[in-house]
Amino acid sequence: MGMKRNRRKFARYGVGSLGVSLHRTGLLGLFSNRIDVRAIDFNTTGLAFRHSRPLSPGQPVLMDLVTDQHSVSHVVAVVRYITRMENHFRCGVAFDFDANEHMRSAAVRDTLKNIETQLNEVVILAAE
């Protein structure tokens, strides 16, 4: 039996201390509140998370990402897939670096890379 091939172009890392909040538009689209979701994996191009509600592929989402060392707000992503699990939905999103000037900024890209590096270091330390 051969080795299983990884279909991903980029490795995904465990989430360690990564906190993820989705922005949800409230009443009449005027108010926004945040819903904390549970991250599953992460890299600089996207992430997967658990959510109690289904989202739609192609749907844009706005999120905040926080670790104990880094944070970035108003990250725009697009839902790539949704899978119904036993008691939740697994959602995969890709960051949309063409969405706006904020997403094209070096600060956003650098922070996402720093988060990935931090999460990778946790994996390396756990393996030692």
Descriptive overview:
This protein is an alpha+beta fold and 128 residues long. It has one domain: predicted glycosyltransferase like domains (Thrombin, subunit H), CATH 2.40.10.220. Helices cover 20% and strands 41% of the residues. It has 2 helices and 6 strands. It has a 6-stranded antiparallel β-barrel. A hairpin with a 4-residue loop joins strand 4 and strand 5 (71-84). It starts with 18 loop residues before the first strand and ends with a helix. The model is unreliable at 124-128 (pLDDT under 50).
What is the number of independent domains? 1
Mean pLDDT: 83
User: Strand tally, please?
Assistant: 6
The largest pleated sheet is described as: 6 strands, antiparallel, barrel
Number of helices: 2
Summarize the structure.
This protein is α+β, with helices and mostly antiparallel strands and 128 residues long. The protein contains two helices and six strands; from the N terminus they run E-E-E-E-E-E-H-H.
